[in-house]
Amino acid sequence: MSVQEGPVASRLPDSLVGYWENDLVKIGATLAAVYLLYVVAGLLLGYGLSGQLNSLRRLTFLIVLYSIGALVVNLHWGYSGLFNIGVVGFMAVGVYTTTILTRPVAGQNPTGTLPGLGLPLPIAIAGGVLAAALVGYLAALPSLRLRDDYFAIVTLAFAEIIRITAKASELQEFTIFGTTVGTGGGRGIRTYPNPINQFFEGTGAPIVNAVSGTIDGPLVSGWTFVLALTFVLVCVLWVIVRIVESPFGRVLKGIRDDEEATTALAKNTGSFKIRSFIIGCGILGLLGIIWQGSQGYISPSLFVPQLTFFIWIAVIIGGAGSNTGSIIGSILFVGTIYLGPGYVRRLVEEFVSLSGRATNFPDALGALAGGDISGIILYTLDQTSALRVILTGVLLIWLLKRRPDGLFGNRREMASSIDVESRVRDRQSNDSTAGGEE
Amino acid sequence: MSDKPLLEVDSLYKSFGGITALDGVSFEVESGTLTGLIGPNGAGKSTTFNTIGGILKADSGTVRFDGEDITGESPDRIARKGLVRTFQMSREFQNMTVIENMMIAPTGQRGESALQSITPGLRENVSDQEEDIFEQAWEMLELFDIDHLALENAGALSGGQRKLLELARALMLDPEMLLLDEPFAGVNPTLEKTLIDRIETLRDKGQTFLLVEHDMDVIMEHCERVIVMHQGDTLLTGTPEEVQSEERVIEAYLGGSVA
To answer: What is the pTM (predicted TM-score) of this model?
Structure first.
């Protein structure tokens, strides 16, 4: 086994380096470190047990969802060389389709809500995944002959077309083949009820009551949902690992490195690219269904390109071409850039007595001119979403200079269904003992 | 051996803008031969390869392989028919290991279906087949004496090693005919000799080779027939002796006018 001389391995004591080689240990250790950080922050902020659990629930929720998105981007970009920056569009197709399929049919819907087809949730989820895969197929078909960057433009445009279509007032509510459905237009649409919440409100209510003395009731369904999502992540990882560690994945890597040379080896590269793309798009559809769909309400403003780029950042941190890297990148992205600024603000407010909160930039600047820096600090910390973008920019520059391949880029993840590496090492060591050379 | 030639190229024309790269190239390659394709720089040798291999579409003319018209077919279909080419500048998969470069090549791999690779039960068949492919790849690496590099990324190999890898990888397809574009460029003389021996052994077993090469000694010593190209056209075809004694060939190389 080869020792990966990464930034962590080189700092670890020798006795621990061996453990670090195991991917699960890497993921677990990173997750534990981030959890610890948040528990300490929670303690400093005076959170009780419920507060801590809720803080970690939100952290885990986002990590799991970003990981699923990052795994797909890694399948597309890291393995197949497909520059998909329309991630959010396929998520939107999935969740909108599922929503429309599940909404009660006209006449049975509560007043003021949009009607749909009234299908059961599992069928509607399958429908949403298929719709996202189908839209992926439509996007890939005409653009397969395009180079990376042009393919990227097509995917971005597709995602925007989907968002703007969902926003169109003409589609807010319309009747087709005698059935009234709608996207809700710019006002959005109420989604489907979360079956886990329903369970704990109904048959599972005694469980909630039993613990309600120690922790808040909603945490039970909240954490159960996060665990269910984790199970989905494990399934997605299982599927993607089997896809990339196979002759299919090997051809994808070949296409990524040199498509023309791959065709010269008798591979119909177009077919491989389409298959890789639609599998990924189907999973993105599922991601939309379990992410935005689980919030009870969706609107087109949720599906802006920024979300796509945040998922990409997670992949870039981890390093394209490594599934482990994608998950660790997601943990670090959510733990620092995404949720970090909010916690820092709360900590500063808790421990530094700053007077003179400024509500807008001129006020903050004015206070600064008067020698009071607290205004600008508080103002800056209030801009959580702007801080995320700024931190992302800083991180990208640092990565470009120091680790252009990300934390796990260029790592060897052999594309084969058998353990090629150990077979080769066996023979190489046999050769060197038998031949006596080297 | 059938009397029909394996590869028939008939009056290929190809121009890029105002430049005529191929101006009526015609030649035939007999099955089981090692044929050389020579000519000065810019004669159109690589364009001919790219057109036969399907990367470029000819403006007119036909290419027949094994009696079948393959003009305008896609590169992957041509390769699947048993006509495989290598590139002048090696095109190994840089970010894949040498062994992966080898194992990607064989056609008809069950695991090229995503469904078979995912589904429990079917994946075992994929693995079984991959065991055989690994054996085959390992044998080929040993044959080319690059087995010690199996776990290196192909991008880390030297120029000569890349040439070896590309030839070995093409042979993994077990092609009926191989188009080799300067396979010995950057390969050291000892290794070059090994490679030529290997090619001759394969030729004696019935495989067919068309070879673009600038080293005249190699061409004259090892090829049964030589095709000379000049300014996008076939100048003449003959045995090495015939070609060598032909004044037009020398003139073409020295830049004299050819009437």
So the answer is: 0.90
